[in-house]
């Protein structure tokens, strides 16, 4: 009987929690409108979500588990893309490393490993020699890595990352951009940042429906 009562109370509590409405994020505070806005998409088109980040950024490191959880349940109409921020120095080096590993098919395996090495082991990986020593321990072919680092494709992707930062006015990370129309603002916890993405994705869906009517 007591066990049944506990189960019922647990179910009631879960129902009450589920009934709590999602936070109503405030434009101009929690998120900003990007001007000029890109052409409006159609209902059903993919909605692009960009995460600007740096491996060296402690806030990006703390956000990562929440984004990882969100990605497990990412809506099918959302395309998620990480963009390494380029603020000069080691950040620019890491951006090239990011795209080199992506070209080699090694990025998914090593993305979190970089965060762990930098923030848990306090190895900042500020030079290419330090990066290569770390990657060698992870079983990466260093000759192939060097070729990728010097490739036109990596240079082009790095330049595009810098261009996206200018286009969206990214001055700090982590920063999230939804559909090229909205970007994250202030007053957000790490947990709330993926919740903001869901809020803005739904807003984009609604705007597309209204525009198509």
Biggest β-sheet strands, sense, barrel: 5 strands, mixed
Instruction: Using the alpha-carbon principal axes, give the shape.
Output: globular
CATH superfamily: Glutaredoxin
> How does CATH name the architecture?
3-Layer(aba) Sandwich
- The unreliable regions are 1-21
Order of helices and strands: HEEHEHHHHHEEH
Number of strands: 5
Q: What is the CATH C level class, in words?
A: Alpha Beta
Protein structure class: alpha+beta
Distance between the termini: 56 Å
Mean pLDDT: 91
Count of individual helical segments? 8
CATH fold description: Glutaredoxin
Q: Looking across the biggest beta sheet, what order are the strands in?
A: 1-5-4-2-3
Q: Strand share of the residues?
A: 5-15%
**Residues in helices, as a percent range:** 40-55%
Number of domains: 1
What is the CA-based Rg, rounded?
Answer: 20 Å
Topology:
Blueprint: H1 2-19, E1 31-33, E2 47-53, H2 58-72, E3 78-84, H3 90-104, H4 107-119, H5 128-137, H6 142-149, H7 152-168, E4 175-178, E5 182-184, H8 192-212
Parallel strand pairs: 2-3
Antiparallel strand pairs: 1-5, 2-4, 4-5
Helix pairs in contact: 3-4, 3-6, 3-7
């Amino acid at each position: 009987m007591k066990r049944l009562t506990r189960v019922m109370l647990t179910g009631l509590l879960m129902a009450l929690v589920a009934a709590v409405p999602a936070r109503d994020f405030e434009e101009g505070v929690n998120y900003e409108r990007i001007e000029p806005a890109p052409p409006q998409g159609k209902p059903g088109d993919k909605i692009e979500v960009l995460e600007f980040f740096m491996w060296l950024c402690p806030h990006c490191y703390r956000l990562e588990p929440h984004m990882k959880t969100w990605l497990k349940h990412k809506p099918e109409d959302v395309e998620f893309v990480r963009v390494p921020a380029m603020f000069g120095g080691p950040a620019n080096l890491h951006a090239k490393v990011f795209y080199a590993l992506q070209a080699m098919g090694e990025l998914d395996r090593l993305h979190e490993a970089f965060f762990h090495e930098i923030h848990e082991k306090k190895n900042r990986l500020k030079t290419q020699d330090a990066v290569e020593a770390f990657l060698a321990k992870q079983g990466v072919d260093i000759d192939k890595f060097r070729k990728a680092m010097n490739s036109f494709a990596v240079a082009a992707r790095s330049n595009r990352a810098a261009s996206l930062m200018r286009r969206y006015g990214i001055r700090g990370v982590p920063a999230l951009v939804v559909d090229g129309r909205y970007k994250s603002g202030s007053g957000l916890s790490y947990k709330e940042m993926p919740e903001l993405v869901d809020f803005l994705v739904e807003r984009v869906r609604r705007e597309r429906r209204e525009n198509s009517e």
